[in-house]
Amino acid sequence: MKRLILTLLLLLATLGATTLKTQAQESSALPLKWGASVSVGTPGVSVEGALNFFPGLTARVGLNYIGFTVPVTRRASSFGVDTQESLGYDPEVHFKARFSTFTGHLLLDYEPIPLFSTFHITGGFYIGANALPVNIALINPNTGKSVAEEYKEDQMPSVTVEPEGGEKLTITPNQKGEIDIAGRLGNAVKPYLGVGFGSSIPKMPVGVRFDLGMIYSGALNFSSPEIDGDVNKALKLFPVGRTLYSLGQWYPVASVGLTIRLSY
Questions:
Q1: CA dihedral of 21, 26, 29, 34, whole degrees rounded to 10
Q2: I need a surface site. Which of 78, 100, 146, 252 has the fewest CB within 10 A?
Q3: In this structure, are residues 63 and 102 in contact, taking their beta carbons and an 8 Å threshold?
Q4: Nearest-5° angle of CA 113, CA 10, CA 66?
Q5: What confidence category does residue 205 fall into, taking pLDDT thresholds of 50, 70 and 90?
Q6: Which among 56, 58, 52, 50 is positioned nearest to 23, based on CA atoms?
Q7: Do 108 and 56 touch, CB atoms closer than 8 A?
């Protein structure tokens, strides 16, 4: 699938080069057209500048920001972890995943049908390393306090987990009774391919643009100093983990934006 996206991006570049060659003389006399836009969608909130440098070809450069926190609370026993011997009770496991990142993008819109210029094919790249830090805290459900506050030993006890169909994991919470997992979501440079409706530089002073497409991020990677074992394999054994890996590698893009014409 990655090869298919790269092949389509190459095809888009070839079509763009053909357009440049066939319309070079005509477009050399035309002034450059500039535009800007603000949009919201799955990449977050985006601001963008656009330049129409040849008929049917528009370059787009922008910045995107997205940030949210996902909290989840479960009992340790629901993960197959028995803590009765080490703690004397079944603690709550508080998950908190924080996703907050800035990315940039370099895109090229190609309008294949001159009479229907609102339709465009878009290819390019999203740039930026996305991090997903996950904090896991163990809480005594009877007191609401961290396990570490009530544990009398110098070091938190280790728990060995062996998920069905997976490898053993030895988990030793830190002195705060927490587990920190560092996540990296794919590559720093991610190819994008999609389609859209509405021009980035509208004929009227203001317009609307819709974009649909896919970003290929690459492989996800998670690690933790408190976990001895392959965290990535363990996550894939759970439905939430499989969904995270699926969305992380192939990220859908759907956005709507307000476009503004800056040149006349």
A1: -70
A2: 78
A3: yes
A4: 85
A5: very high
A6: 56
A7: no
Is-contact 172 232, C-beta < 8 A? no
Here the tokens at position 196 are 């859209």
Residue carrying structure tokens 């949210």: 68
| CA 53/CA 13 separation, integer angstroms | 15
Report the alpha-carbon distance of residue 236 to residue 244 in Å, rounded: 9
Domains observed in the chain = 2-261 (2.40.160)
DSSP secondary structure letter of residue 260: E
Q: Is 5 helix (H, G, I), strand (E, B) or coil?
A: helix
Helix residue spans in the chain (DSSP H): 2-28, 147-150, 231-235, 239-249
**CA distance linking residue 120 with residue 12, whole number of Å:** 11
Question: pTM for the whole thing?
Answer: 0.74
Structure tokens at 74: 């479960």
Q: How many residues does the chain have?
A: 264
User: Residue 255 and residue 71: Cα distance in Å, rounded?
Assistant: 25
- From residue 214, alpha-carbon distances to 122, 193, 228, 252, 262 in Å are 11, 6, 35, 5, 29
Q: How far is CA 119 from CA 19, 114, 210, in A?
A: 16, 9, 10
Looking at per-residue pLDDT, the higher value among 195 and 84 belongs to 195
Q: How many angstroms separate the Cα of 171 from the Cα of each of 76, 206, 207, 230?
A: 12, 56, 54, 11
Span of 8-22, 90-104, 207-221, 226-240 with lowest mean pLDDT: 8-22
60: left (phi over 0), alpha (psi -120 to 50) or beta: beta
pLDDT tens-digit series, residues 7-56: 655 555 555 555 445 444 444 556 789 999 999 999 999 999 999 988 88
Q: Give kind and range of the element (H or E) at residue 61.
A: strand 57-75
φ, ψ for residue 44 (rounded to 5)? 110, -150
